[in-house]
Amino acid sequence: MAKIAPSLLSADFTRLGEEVKEIESVGTEILHIDIMDGHFVPNLTFGYSMVKALRPVSDMIYDVHLMMTNPLSYIENFAKAGSDIITVHTECDDDINKCLDLIHKCGVKAGLSVKPKTSPDALFPYLDKLEHILVMTVEPGFGGQSMMTECLDKIAVIKAECASRGLNIPVMIDGGVNADNVQTAARAGADMMVAGNAVFGAKDRAAAFKTLSEGANL
Ligand code: DX5
Ligand code: ZN
To answer: Could you report the per-residue pLDDT of 122-181, keeping only the tens digit for each?
Structure first.
């Protein structure tokens, strides 16, 4: 079953706790939490204290996407705050092996992400250490952008490399997922799809989540 992971970035920031509860009540299992540092991307969002504050609010899997130039020194705090998955970027300035090892040492699942212009090969040296792969389908930094569908081709390349090594790592896509392209993304092999605007921006979020979840599994 392919899963839809609503992104908190598109929630109403004046009432985050209620937003998290509401999105869990429509059947969400994975909540995507975008952390932006103002360097790696030209935008700022939440810190680990926000993740910590939201932890008691729900039992969803907290999938924390670190869009940070130097994630290494923050990993422990994000882990302690209650993250279930922590994803760093291949394009960050820190040592990727050190980041992944630290995430595991903290008892958290480790993810690695590639931006649209980065080749999927950049993930390959680290596959043995990954429980999660995140393929960006927009330039990271903002919600509500259009999907760069050409990025979906990376999924087959990644899956083939994983299969050749006997690995089965779930691949999530992130950016611009909506009711019109969710089936295309599912056919391309995405196991999980982040959806910010398409869920939190909808008047009827339960209906939007259901439409996307059904579309992802047709
Ligand atoms: C973009 C973030 C995404 C974003 C997706 O930098 O990583 O997770 O929230 O939002 P939508 O689904 O609106 O493109
Ligand atoms: Zn994200």
So the answer is: 999 999 999 999 999 999 999 999 999 999 999 999 999 999 999 999 999 999 999 999
Question: Strand 3-6 and strand 30-36: pairing?
Answer: unpaired
pTM greater than 0.70: yes
Mutate to test the pocket of ligand 1, among 8, 10, 62, 85 (most ligand atoms within 8 A of CB): 10
Q: Cα torsion for 124, 127, 133, 135, to the nearest 10°?
A: 0
For every residue of 125-167, DSSP letters joined together read GGGGG-SEEEEESS-TT-SSPPP-GGGGHHHHHHHHHHHHTT-
